[in-house]
Amino acid sequence: MLFGYVRISTKTQNPGLQIDALLKEGVVEKNIYRDVSSGAKSERHDLDLMMSRLREGDTVIVWKLDRIARSISHLLKLVDEFEKLGVKFKSIKDPFIDTTSAHGKFVITLFGAIAQLERDIIIERTTAGLKSARRRGIQLGRKKGLNKIAKQKAILAASYYKENNLPIVDIMKLVGIKSKPTLYKYLAIQGRRNCKECGIIFWDERQNIEDAFCKKHKK
């Protein structure tokens, strides 16, 4: 059985050109599934519905590849699902994509190899970039920070800690902090440090927490 799939990006677009092309290929109108969705969106109701109704020996036809696939990787995933179901796939405007022919199968295999090569290159470049960044002492990952309310709590906690010399449990109650690790995290962000050499507590936001030194032992 022949199935057709049509996609338009907005309701103002006319799917008539795609539908006429599918009808010309022999797809009956009741077997044409249609979605209104941008190419970037993964949620496509009618595509999922069509996939659930496919059976071995069926053929899926589209007007152009970009009507059904969001990317090369998405195309390869769809083709892999078609193959598992025993379903053939072809594109009217892209005749080189036609798994009903040996040539079309070869092109799909070639696409797969290119996609894998692209993934390998990206991984290689990312790995090299991470190693280079580490060698230069660049801190990786998301920058540490607090939202507006947490920032206010951190400032208040540091003020109580430095100026009022209040016990930790009292500061937690006053500021509304539920755990000591959270309090010490807030104080650290505000600059609380322990000297690596003598252990004395001092304040310096510019120094690394794990490698901080007081004025006496600062190198």
TrEMBL record:
Keywords on record: DNA integration, DNA recombination, DNA-binding
Coiled coil: none
SUPFAM superfamilies associated with the record: Resolvase-like (SSF53041)
Gene3D superfamilies the UniProt entry points to: Resolvase, N-terminal catalytic domain
Occurrences of domain Resolvase/invertase-type recombinase catalytic (ranges): 1-137
Matches recorded under PANTHER family: DNA-INVERTASE FROM LAMBDOID PROPHAGE, SERINE RECOMBINASE PINE-RELATED
Protein name according to UniProt: Recombinase family protein
